[in-house]
What does this fold into?
Amino acid sequence: MNNIEQNTTLTCYGDHLKLFTKDNKEIGLISWHTFPGGKTLEIHLVSVNYEFRRRGYGTYLVQEMIKLYPEYVSTYCHSRSTNTGAHSFYLHLGFERIFEAKDLYGKNQDAVFFIKKL
It folds into this structure.
């Protein structure tokens, strides 16, 4: 058991996980959508409260989500092209940058898509 597992509580609410400290303060969450036919997970959101960032909690949330679907073959996500912090996070986790979608979030608000084979 790692330090995060020892000092936190992870709760699953169907299509999202929430991570709490032992005294019930929310650390962060991950939400996703499944595509059963294609066995692909789409990450909608990974969010870690500011005071807990850069300590491995986001990585832990992604890893725990993936463990819930051992039969799935890939996961993908997208973020704003200006969100370089998210890009670094996903690349660090082994995601591959696959393409950009122009104006996905509105005029002049492009998206970058990432995929990870499981």
